[in-house]
Structure formats: C-alpha cells, structure tokens
Amino acid sequence: MIGTLIVFYILAAVIVVSSVLAVTSRRMLRAATFLLLVLISTAGLYLLLNYHFLAVVQLSVYAGGILILFIFAILLTSSRGDRTEAHDRQRMVWGIVTVVAGIGITTWVTLKHKFLYSDNPTIAGDQQIPVSRIGHALMGTDKYEYLLSFEALSILLLACMLGGILIARKR
Amino acid sequence: MNIFLQYILLGVAILVAYAVLALILIYVERKVCGFFQCRIGPNRVGPWGVFQSVADMVKILLKELVHIDKADHVLFRMASFFVIIGSICTFAALPFARGVQAIDFNVGIFYVLAVSSLGVVGILLAGWSSNSKYSMIGAMRSGAQLISYEISSGLSLMTIVVLSGTMQLSEIVEQQSDLWFIFRGHVPACIAFLCYLISGHAETNRGPFDMPEAESELTSGYHTEYSGIQFGFFYLAEYLNMFIVAAVASTMFLGGWQPLHIPGLDGFNAVMDFIPGIVWFLGKTFFCVFLALWIRWTFPRLRIDQLLSLEWKVLMPICLVNLLLMAVVVIW
Fold first, then answer.
1. Given an 8 Å threshold on Cβ–Cβ distance, is B75 in contact with A30?
2. Cis-peptide, bond into residue B300, ω within 30° of zero
3. SS3 B100
4. Helix B316-331 vs helix B186-203: angle between axes, to the nearest 10 degrees?
5. Does B104 touch chain A (CB under 8 A)?
6. Which terminal Cβ of chain A has fewer Cβ within 10 Å, N or C?
7. Taking CB atoms and an 8 Å cutoff, what residues of chain A touch B102?
8. Do B106 and A64 touch (CB under 8 A)?
9. What are the pLDDT digits (tens) for B290-315?
10. Which of A34, A52, A136 should be substituted to probe chain B, the one whose Cβ sees the most B Cβ atoms within 10 Å?
C-alpha cells in the first residue's frame, strides 16, 4: 500500500509541475511536450487504479495520436525561435482566480461525494474488465450499450477527413 | 520491503537483458552484413571479434556530450529518453518463456502498440530541437513513415487478435500450443505475417526503408547532432526495436516460446518439448531478425513518395481486406 502511495505522489508531482510548465512556457513545442508528460502521467494514474484498458487508450490516443498531430502542426506552422506573447497582468489575475475557484470546487465535491466501495476499496479494484466486454458494450444496442454514438462519431470523423482532403486538395 | 526488492530486481533484469541483447544484435548485424558483402566483419577484438561491440560500448560511454549552439536544450536532452523509454516499455511486455514476462495486461498487444508510439514523439522532438536542417528533414520523414506504417502493423496484429479472440500475450501464446497461428490461420494469417514483417521493418527505420537517415543525403537524419550516450540511446533503441518487431512477430504468428507441435505426431511433439521455451523464443526471434538483415542488405533504398504510397495504396488496403477475410475464416 505504501508503494502505491509513493508512486501516486510521484505521478501527482509530475502532473502538477508539468501542467504549470505547459501553460507558462513561451515556446510552443515545449508546452506541447509538457502537455504530453501530463497525459502520460495520467495514464500512470489509471494503471495505478488497475484499469489497464483506459491507461493504454490514454497512451495510444494522446501520446500516439493527438500529441503527434499537435507537434506536426507546430513544426509546419511556426519557425524556430518563435515565442508566444507574454501573458498580460489582467489575464494572469483572472487565470489565477479561475484556478483557485476550480481547485475549491473540485476539493469540495471530492470530499462531499460518497464513493462506491469507499469502506472497502479493494473489492472493485481487483477485478479487470476484459476487452471483449468493452467491445460488446461498444457494439451492442441494448441498454448501456453504445452502437449509436459509435456510429455517429465515425460519421463525424469521416466528415472531418473529407473536409481536410477538400481543403488540402490542389486545383 | 520484499516487494520493493522484487521490483528493483525485475527492473535491473530487464535493463540488463536490453543492453546485452543490443550488444549481441550489433555484433550479429555487423557480421551478417560482412558476409553479405563478401567481407569478414569484425575480427580483431576477441575470438571472431565477439568483443567488438563491448569495446564500442565502452567507447561510447566515454565520449563527450557535445553542446549544440542555439538548440532547445530541454527538448534536446528529453528526446532521447522518450525514444529509449518507449522501447524499454515495449520490451518489458514480451513473453520470453513460460511465466517469464514482466507485464501481462489483458490488453497486452494493444499496450505494445501504444507504448511503441512514444518513440515517434522522441524522434520528432530530436529533429526539431537540434537546430539542423538534416535532423529536421530526417525527423519529418521519420514521423510520416512511422505513423503511416503503424496502421498496417496494427491491422495485421488485429488479424491475429480476431483469430485468437484475446489480446493478452500469454493467452495468445498458450493457444498456439497445438499449432502455431501461421499454420492454423490459413491464408489470412500468412498474408498478415508478411504485412507485419514489411511494416515492422519500415517502423524500425531500416533499409530499404531507411529514408529518415539516408546517409548519402542527410548525414544520419534525426540523430545527426547527438553524441556520446545520447546517441547511444537512439542506437540502442533502433537495434532493440528490430528485436522487438521480430519478437512480436514470433509471438503472434510463430507461437512465441511454444515448441513446434504437429497434431498426431505424439513422439515428435514429446521430443520437441525437451527444448526449453527460451531457446524456441530466441531461435524464432533471431530467425525473424535474420530476415530483416537479409532484406536490409539486399534491396536498394526507396524514395520517400514510393515509401508512403506503398503503405497507403498497397499495404493498408491489403491489411483491411485481410482482416475481413480472417473474420470470414473465423466465423466459418
């Protein structure tokens, strides 16, 4: 149990430090890299909860997909030595206010909420959900199954791809 | 305390196996390359030159880390770690023998695909941060190549997942105790095996797909500016990625550490059982590594547009059709 706690604190420290660095860094690519560190450490948190599927999805979608897209976009659009503008004072103040309010609300909700299995946290964490069950839920049409949203998303993605091709096509 | 010790020992064992395999692979590559080109290869350090790569390792550890002017130093240092960590995380999930497997998730093969994509980020960062045209061009080519070929390697592995009905690596190996998947899966498994070998070979950035580091035009691509142990990280990761691709191919298609069993021939099967699993695993893996070396030193380099159209117009459609075919075979 103590080992889990140590790993949690390490991951939490990495998440906090890199998310602050991601918004304060003035070089775009550094900001993207720190964002990547945040996302990887979040995957670490999921692993700590024994939810392997979500951790792996987090890694492959964010580290393998979205972040590479970000980095490619930054590499193609900005030149070396480009720096974003420094934040002005008013934005800084409002940002800090929003962050403090966010921390307050989250802490209040977390402390107030009655978690399932909070009296015996080992029950739910010990069993793994097999991938086949997730697949059936994704492709099923019963209650708590998601075929419709899955198909709607795929049409949305297809539309995005067609739009991208249309914009990029040479005449 | 016991469990901490266990984790530390496990970590050290994986790192040592990683480094030792890299030394062996570098020696094998240089020897095989030598024979393909009618040379002898390394032959001075130790008998048949076997200690040559150890000597090279000591040399690379002693080299200076060169300071690059006007480079983004944070990202420059970080990039090599992304590459090597992605590679080690993948390496840890390989089943070497019965029970000799550090990470055995129920999403095993998906995990392997996911962590290996960390390397792409490292390569792109390395190319951008080293303030050099060659690195930049190499990194862009490499990024395009890796994310394209990831699709067909993923699809061909999914073909086997359809056949086995599970993603857990230990379970996949267990199911091949009667007959390896390449024999049991009829035609689609063979097509998937070929597609995986081609796309895996392209994913390791090795010839004829070594556009990212085409030395005649780009010096050596994304790691041109690196020196010392940081260059060593890229070098290690490149060799171990070749091993990992071969090991995944042998796990998914050739039965991993399972011995060769032919249904009906009980005597033959019993004899095969006497050879330990690790020997089978390493034998199959080094067979696949030899195939990769053979291809590398036989074919000339492709152009980048040929490379990408090979993936998007040939390999990916074949893999998609093959996946459907495998679904038909499984249902039927």
1. yes
2. no
3. strand
4. 150
5. no
6. C
7. none
8. no
9. 988 888 888 888 888 888 888 889 99
10. A52
Residue with tokens 């390496």: B91
Q: What is the pLDDT of residue A14?
A: 93
**Residue B85 contacts A where some CB pair is shorter than 8 Å:** no
Residue A57: closest C-alpha in chain B: B114
Which residues, in sequence order, are CB contacts of A170 under 8 Å at separation 6+? none
Report percent pLDDT > 90 for chain A.
Answer: 21
Q: What is the ipTM of this complex?
A: 0.81
Cα separation, B221 vs B245, in Å, equals 22
Among residues B199, B13, B14, the alpha carbon closest in space to that of B90 is found at B14
Residues 6+ apart with CB under 8 A from A27: A82, A83, A84, B72
Which residue's structure tokens are 């305390």?
B1
A91 touches chain B (CB under 8 A): no
Question: In DSSP terms, which residues pair with B100 in a beta bridge?
Answer: B97
Q: In the numeric block, which tokens belong to residue B167?
A: 């993603």
Scanning chain A, the segments in alpha helix (DSSP H) are 2-24, 28-48, 52-58, 67-77, 89-112, 122-125, 131-139, 147-168
> What confidence tens digit (pLDDT) does each residue in B152-189 have?
898 999 998 888 888 888 888 888 887 888 878 788 88
Considering just the CA atoms, what is the radius of gyration of chain A in Å? 21
For residue A83, the tally of other CB atoms under 10 A from its CB is: 10
User: How many CB atoms neighbour CB B56 within 10 A?
Assistant: 18
CB contact (8 A) between residue B105 and residue A72: no
In chain B, where are the structural domains located? 1-62, 69-331
Instruction: State the amino acid at position B265 in one-letter form.
Output: L
Residue A67 contacts B, CB cutoff 8 Å? yes
Residue B110 tokens read as: 């998906």
Q: Is A68 on the interface with B (CB under 8 A)?
A: yes
Chain B residue whose CA is closest to A56:
B111
How buried is B60 (Cβ within 10 angstroms: 0-12 exposed, 13-18 middle, 19+ buried)? middle
The pLDDT tens digits for A33-82 are 899 899 999 999 988 888 888 888 888 888 878 888 888 888 878 766 66
Enumerate domains of chain A plus CATH numbers: 1-86 (1.20.120.1200)
Instruction: Report the gap between the CA of A60 and the closest CA in chain B (Å).
Output: 4
Q: Would the CB atoms of A63 and B4 count as touching at under 8 Å?
A: no
pTM summary value: 0.86
Euclidean distance between CA atoms A170 and B258, whole angstroms? 53
Contacts of A64 in chain B (CB under 8 A): 113-114, 117-118, 120, 150
